[in-house]
């Protein structure tokens, strides 16, 4: 059975197909809640220096340990977040033939995916996604245009809302990399300039209810290959982080956004800040939704840690690379997991040797 059809007709499936069943070592129970700081951005956004230094301190502590924190008073309108959830709920409730009309193709990152079955055949995640690009490099509203031209004229309003949502996420992302720079002791605009003209990734996730949730995962254990992820999750819960050798929950808050460090920023911090293993579980009785914005640099920009950070550390931990190099690796050669970054570096160095 096609995985997309399976996810849309989940109530009719008495037993989980084997390609959705994960090995036991991936299904270890959660133990407690992640002690991730909730960082109030109000003072920082108002230019308060004392509040800025305190926010940077909290972020530094989190990023040295596990790379996860939550932010409140982040400047993104709560009504806009609710509208985005409502619009994406409308998309995921479309008939399966309509969703499949915008299915991802092997050559593209954009579109609908049911369980990522277009890429993988085993350990399939119990979820469906809609991914689309966001950038500010053209006169057109790229997200609005994507919804209207790809999904249909009846989704133009959804495109307008997600255009505004991505605008807000991008501006917040640029503010967050300022704070990350401050926390690392480098010029506060260093990373902002790196990300200002990048093409970021917006992904909407739907995790349907599952009759046998203990056998599968909504998203398998992985580290994000991107730079930073800004996530809004509903109140169903299901995000787990592997910290202190245990799986721990991230408590959902409607007023907060979850932020985590990705592999690219680990390299940009010379390995100081952690890109942490995380996963999503599913629920027997409730579906879960989340909205993930992945802040990315421009694909051809050379990525390296600031000289001042390398100088303090004494050793450069990673060779220079571009975001397009890492993107090519994860899309064509490797399924993202906790070893993505070291395996990418090995692949990059070996490919340079053979060329």
Structural write-up:
This protein has 355 residues and is α+β, with helices and mostly antiparallel strands. The chain has a single domain (19-297), classed as Jelly Rolls (Sandwich). The chain is built from twelve helices and 14 strands. The protein has helices at 3-8, 42-45, 49-65, 78-92, 96-100, 142-151, 156-184, 190-195, 263-268, 307-313, 323-332, 340-354; strands at 38-40, 68-72, 111-114, 128-134, 200-207, 219-222, 228-233, 239-243, 246-249, 257-261, 278-280, 288-295, 302-303, 321-322. The strands form three sheets. It has an eight-stranded mixed sheet with strand order 1-2-10-7-12-5-4-3. A hairpin with a 2-residue loop joins β8 and β9 (246-249). The longest helix is centred in the middle third of the chain and has 29 residues, at 156-184.
Integer average pLDDT: 91
The percentage helix is 25-40%
**Main sheet summary:** 8 strands, mixed
Q: Taking strands numbered 1, 2, ... along the chain, how are they ordered across the largest sheet? A: 1-2-10-7-12-5-4-3
The CATH architecture would be Sandwich
How are the SSEs placed, and which strands pair?
Elements: H1 3-8, E1 38-40, H2 42-45, H3 49-65, E2 68-72, H4 78-92, H5 96-100, E3 111-114, E4 128-134, H6 142-151, H7 156-184, H8 190-195, E5 200-207, E6 219-222, E7 228-233, E8 239-243, E9 246-249, E10 257-261, H9 263-268, E11 278-280, E12 288-295, E13 302-303, H10 307-313, E14 321-322, H11 323-332, H12 340-354
Parallel strand pairs: 1-2
Antiparallel strand pairs: 2-10, 3-4, 4-5, 5-12, 6-11, 7-10, 7-12, 8-9, 8-11, 13-14
Helix pairs in contact: 3-7, 4-7, 6-7, 11-12
InterPro entries: DIOX_N, IPNS-like_FE2OG_OXY, IPNS-like_sf, Iron_ascorbate_oxido_reductase, Oxoglu/Fe-dep_dioxygenase_dom
Family: Belongs to the iron/ascorbate-dependent oxidoreductase family. GA20OX subfamily.
Protein name: Fe2OG dioxygenase domain-containing protein
């Amino acid at each position: 059975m096609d995985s997309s059809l399976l996810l849309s007709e989940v109530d009719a499936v008495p037993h989980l197909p084997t390609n959705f069943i994960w090995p036991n070592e991936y299904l270890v129970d959660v133990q407690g809640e992640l002690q991730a700081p909730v960082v109030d951005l109000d003072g920082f956004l108002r230019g308060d220096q004392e509040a800025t230094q305190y926010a940077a301190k909290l972020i530094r502590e989190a990023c040295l340990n596990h790379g996860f924190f939550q932010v409140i008073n982040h400047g993104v309108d709560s009504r806009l977040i609710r509208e985005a959830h409502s619009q994406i709920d409308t998309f995921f409730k479309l008939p399966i033939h309509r969703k499949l009309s915008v299915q991802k193709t092997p050559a593209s990152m954009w579109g609908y995916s049911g369980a990522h079955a277009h890429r993988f055949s085993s350990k399939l995640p119990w979820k469906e996604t809609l991914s689309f690009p966001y950038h500010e490099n053209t006169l057109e509203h790229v997200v609005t245009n994507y919804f209207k031209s790809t999904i249909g004229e009846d989704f133009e309003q959804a495109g307008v809302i997600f255009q505004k949502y991505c605008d807000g996420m991008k501006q917040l992302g640029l503010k967050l990399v300022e704070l990350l720079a401050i926390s690392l002791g480098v010029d506060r605009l260093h990373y902002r300039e790196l990300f200002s003209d990048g093409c970021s990734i917006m992904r909407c996730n739907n995790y349907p209810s599952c009759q046998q949730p203990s056998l599968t995962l909504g998203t398998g254990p992985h580290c994000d290959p991107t730079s930073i992820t800004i996530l809004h999750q509903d109140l169903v819960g299901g995000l787990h982080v592997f910290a202190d050798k245990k799986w721990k929950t991230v408590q959902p808050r409607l007023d907060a956004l979850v932020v985590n460090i990705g592999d690219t920023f680990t390299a940009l911090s010379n390995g100081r800040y952690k890109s942490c293993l995380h996963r999503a579980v599913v629920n027997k009785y409730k579906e879960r939704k989340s909205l993930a914005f992945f802040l990315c640099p421009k694909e051809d920009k050379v990525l390296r840690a600031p000289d001042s950070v390398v100088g303090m550390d004494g050793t450069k931990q990673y060779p220079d690379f571009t975001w397009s190099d890492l993107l090519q690796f994860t899309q064509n050669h490797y399924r993202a997991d906790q070893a993505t970054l070291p395996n990418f570096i090995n692949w990059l160095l070996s490919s340079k040797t053979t060329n």
